[in-house]
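re: ur question from the group chat, yeah i did fold both. here u go
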Amino acid sequence: MLFFWNFRCLLLYIILVELNIDNVISIWPSSNSSDVYLLGIFYYTPNVSNSGESAIHARAMFKSAIMLSNQYNITVDGKLIGWREELTSGNVIDALSGTCLSVSQSNIIGIVGPALSRETLLISPLCEKLGLPVISYSATDPDLSDITTYPNFYRTVPSDNTAASALVKLFYRFNWTSCLIIYQNDAFGSGGARAINDVFNASGIRVVQMIVYDIAKTSIRGNLKTYLKNSLTRIVILWAESIYTSLILKDALDSNLVGPHFTWIISSMISFNYFDKKYDQNLIGMLLIESVVGSVVNAPYNIELLNAAYNIWQKYDNETYPGSTNVDYYALFAFDATWALIKSLEELCSSKINNSSSCLSFDQTSFCFDFHFNQYDLLLSILARTNFLGVSGSMRFSKNTTDRINGSYYSLKNVQSSANDLNFVFVLEYAGSENWRIPVTESIIKWPGNSLTPPADGAILRGVNLRVGIIPITPFTIVQNVTASNGQITIQYIGYMPDLTQLLTNQIGFNATLILIPLNQTYLQIIQLVNEGFCDIIVGDVTVTALRRQLVGFSNPIFDNSLRLIVRKTSDRSIDLLAFIKPFSRKLWMLALFTCIYAGILMCLVERADNEDLQNRPIISQLILSIWYCFGNIVGYGVEFNARTAAGRFLTAGLYILSLILVASYTANLASDLTIAKSQFVISGIDDIKNGKIQMNRIGIRVGTASEEYFKTEISGESKDYYPLRSRQQLYDSLLAGIIDVALSDSGIAEYATSSIYCNLTLVGNDFDRGAFGIVTRKQWIYAQDLDVGILSLKESGKLDNLRQKWFQAQHCSDSTITTTAIEIEATGGLFITFAITTLISLLLFLWAKRYNIKNYLPQFIRKNESSTTRPHSFTN
């Protein structure tokens, strides 16, 4: 059984080496003469250039570090350190077995790698059992930061927890508040996605959706196009290895999901040669966030050590050396991981220099699980104190975490086009806990669509084709036939809503196709058309109500609306000359007259003997003067004489009290009657309907409208005993025919109809149930925010007000809604006629009183005129 296991491991190792023997096998000197070895575990996929190059560079720098230690004569028990290497293809069991094979065949004292997080999660616990420290140069899973779970593990690459914090600050920089995450379903992908999600949620950034990419099936779980097209965000974070990043992007490009409407942030370098050249414009604007070394962000690093390593690489494998500026950053992390182990081993053995025993000892066996490095604990304590300036920056470990304490840097690269090729351009840098900053060599960011303006994180309508449903209601949408010069007839839409749609297309940039909605359905049926796919949005006179919001979505208001009452105009009322006496009933007038006469008689009785003004007069004169006294006091005017007796004064007080009440009551009732007299209509407002002044079956309500909802809720108590109307035309016809007396209608349409079309209809009362029209969309429509911003921009610029004035201010009928507070002459004509009669009677009384003088004066006047006509004229020369 043991033979079979070792044979299987050896066979696997040979196969992995043979995967790319022409490119991987080089002329590095053999290290078989060494007694102790460091094992390098590298992830190599020959079909993906980035992964292959990264593995080649990492292996070269791993060997360069060991060769450099040999040059520096760093020995362990007097022996130079050698190396063993293992190439993995991503299969964790293969990586585990390959490690087991190497340990069983050689004295392994430390491991550099593995490259993948999913391999590290198994190999690190295995090596803990074997007593071997593990330092990874590219495993970023946040779970690996737990020193308690992985006490023998360290890493030189920053954890994805640090990457998540850097992403938060990147989102802050560009005012993004949401994103969508696509991740591969392994430790690297799920760990990174979880870290980003946790940090984003704590920072107020919403992760709308997390999409899984199955690396076994090499496909998205679900439909990527459906996910992204229906997503509320347009920022996509892709957390996957290079090979899977390329596969995902290819599918996204084929579905038109990469630029210009989506901004992608990837975590792994890709090769543009993998994609068709026709997609170059779509790839422009994509961002790459990757961990980098200190030299990239102008942080301190060990340039002498780096140059020495490069010299060794060029000496032994010059064909794979890409130049100092093109070395993969993970290769430098691999060098520092190797150098940290070498320096720790050097310190371990230097502490044993005075001890005759060997500084290294092993429990060796052919079965790898029984292997154990005896100085494991001492070596780990030395590793925890690691502190040197490495080729990637400052290298320092701690006993509290597996992550490097400092030296965590990131770069943001932007896909741009130059000389017909695509390149990653370095645009921003991130050093430690600082904010993102512009590098020394500044480059502008080209966003998707070759824009220089950072995109919004939400879905935008620019360039999107929308089917816009419109409702043929004048003047919101007017359908007219236009005859061209060639005689061809085309349909043209004009009105408030078509003009609004055009303003929105100009403002936002979407493409609109107008679709006329038939009127043979209710508004509840009309709004359902967006859910049925008949159109994308509906731009019409649709009032936003609670019931409708349960079914569809609505935009910001596009038209302020309310309800109005429409009635027929009535003919002028007949003139009532006696309107001024109507405040009191006939009986009350008779009672007031009788009271005045009675008080006059009583006043004459108590005052005639003592009041000088009544003395020396005939009894009739005394009685009339007493009645006049009472009348003057009742109406509040007073007279020319005063009461002289106590009884007379007391009676006068009673007259004052009577005057106070009668005059005030008369004035109030007269004012009310005159106000009512000015109204020409059967009702004055909605309160009259609520108070039952009109029979329910004389009130017209359009079925399926917001006015019906209001009427049933506020007035009829869900009763449907009103007169149902099926269309606006039926509403107008029913009013004109006298079938109904009043109808409820939207204010905008009602004002237009009564001022421009139906001049014999008018509006009464104030508006009520104020609301607004909104554009109908599907619920949680992804473009809702962009549409709302466009509408608000039009409103703030005054264009909506201009549009309303254009279509609703035209007036071809007299404005019957304008009322005056002035009292017309007809209302008080009878009062003036009464006064004229009074003046005539006064004149007659005057003539009657002067009848004797007139009788004597008239003959004299006649004789005088006759004598003047017979007298001769004299002329003077």
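okk and heres the other one u asked abt
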Amino acid sequence: MSAGRPQELPCTSLSLGIRDDPHVNVMMAGSTLRKVKSRSWKKQRHFRLLEDGLTIWYKSRWYKELLSPTRLFLCHNPVSVSVTELEAVREGHQSEVLQSIAEEFSADLCFTLVFHGRQGNLDLVAESPEEARAWIQGVRKLIHKAQTMDEKERLDQWVCDWFQKADKNKDGKMNFKESSIFKNRTHKIPPLFPQMADKSESGSLEIEQFVHFYKILTQRDEVWKVFQDYSGDGEKLLLEELENFLMIEQQEGGRSAQHSQELIDRYEPSETAKKQGVMSLDGFQMYLCSQEGSILKPEHRGIYQDMNQPLNHYSISSSHNTYLLEDQLRGQSSLEAYIQALKRGCRCVEVDSWDGSDGEPVVYHGHTLTSKILFRDIISTLKEYAFKASDFPVILSLENHCGIEQQTVMAQHLRHILGDTLLTTLLDGQMPQQLPSPQELRGKILLKAKKIGGLVDCLDETLTDEVSDEEEMANDDAGSPTKSKSKLSRELSDLVVYCKSVHFHGFEHARSHSKCYEMSSFSESKAKRLAKEAGTDFVQYNTRQLSRIYPSGLRTDSSNYNPQDMWNVGCQIVALNFQTAGLEMDLNDGLFRQNSCCGYVLKPDFMRDSSTRFSPERPEERQGYIPLRLSIQVISGQQLPKVNQKEGSIVDPLVRVEIYGVPQDQAKEETSHINNNGFNPLWNETLNFVIHTPELALVRFVVEDYDKASRNDFIGQFTLPFTCIQAGYRHIHLLSKDGTAIPPSSLFINISISELK
């Protein structure tokens, strides 16, 4: 191989599989595309796919003409996008930005790169339809390839990423200076480099040496020790030895015999070992690092719960002021906010409608400076995206501030745009004694709003169009709602079937007068007060009908309340500001991570029984009460990202485990911090908890960069229901603050769960 020419990386499996694809070749050759941020901001940039087949790199058209390195850096810094960050590609004018320039650029030139999480889209315009088609198809193939890589391919890709980051001058080698990239994570790299990897003493590593170097760095002594405990010869695990490990450590019981052979077939990289029916250390580590070896039970990833229970027997992933991308005072209202919420599995979205100046209803946060969007555009977006992430029903929560005329316009848009998707009649034509199930309502959109009379009364044409409009405002908490007479459109009223908004008059009144299709909304402060003062009554109330909780109007920054307090009393529609990352959304994502992320989670049986006496304040009084001991040995961490960009800063990681549930279960414990090692920190510390109501508990693992002088920096987290935890040796694949994956960052732990004696 000629000197100076980049060597072909053995880890570029992503690009090797599609290198001959004509669309990918166009991307590798590069294209001049317009990057569009608004109707007035359209800049030409040169885009191309790098040789790794994973990175899309772009720069300004004039970048290469600048001669001064100083000016080059100050004027424009090239940007790269990893294919793994992308979720999808949209064709044509499928973003608000591209719709705004539709008259200037035809749809066949336009496309949008959509990112995971809350990151904004990248809107692009090609110079020809053929070029646009090549990029659309090429990126889609790369996304599919990235999403379907097996464990070995992922590992190869990580190695490739490291080499690409380190090889600054792209000569196919990594010199000592370039290896300083590893100092971002650990101080141990410099002495390792010359002694263990640079056998030729040339001061640089070629790719084969780098792979060996990387293997040294990622050598897992803690995994090797577990392997040694069950391996008779220290070299391999026989089928029987693997069975013993699965039965004793992973607590798999009777299924371990069949499962051990499946694991060898799935994760053992050596064909010779596979034929012999044994597992090597590499295969063992690959299994432990896989999704199957993760903390979340594999059987809970798909739909595993009974979806034939009444709607109010489920917790429902719900969004507040869904139209906002930012704060409640000046934030942008956007259709993209609905798309992002729906693709996260949200099943209840909110619309605040107001009279528009041209006869078309608009949506925004009333009496503020938030921007406005058309009601009809939201309904069109709902039609397209409602069932992409989940086909279980979507509830459209309507805060109606429109006059009669534009209410009728809204009703017409709902009927014409949604068509048969909108539920407008009772499923069986009979008065319901209980709400229908998510299974029965699959593929349907339900309108939640005020309604004239009841389900039978809507056939009575003599009813007045005036209804009591008891707004859920701050004075709700004082128990004295403002009563006013508001005109309600008959056409809009008739679209409300199973989710009629009514004022809450107290638990006793609801017990004797309320219908299953009636539901009330509670501010967070009112709901917290009711939960504390009458927890059992609140639980019973939620066994019969739906309740919706919304954030305080004082949360103008779009912050969130803790949803756990509401789930503890069985509230179903616990609405959060989805645009705001943080603990509260981590809990929401954690609860709904199970059951195929479908947005519906079946509540525990003691919260579905109308005669239940359960109170979150007194969990020990529940029938069948059995507290559990949770013991978590935090063993090690792997490749934790550097978050403090200060020069010379190295990660000092610690792990905190947090329990959220009934008040007695709320707890936090943390490890000590490890100085200057984010690459492979080793703790071997055990944290113990007692869980009184495991059915309601969430467990959150947080990794932080310790700072003795200021607040610790967040590195990553993972949250899941206690009932979804796999015991044994497990890896936790960490998520960013935004909720997206940050591979290969992980924690290695050993979990034990037992009855408290």
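fwiw on the second one: Residues 129-147 form the longest helix (19 residues). The two ends are 68 Å apart (CA to CA). idk if thats what u expected
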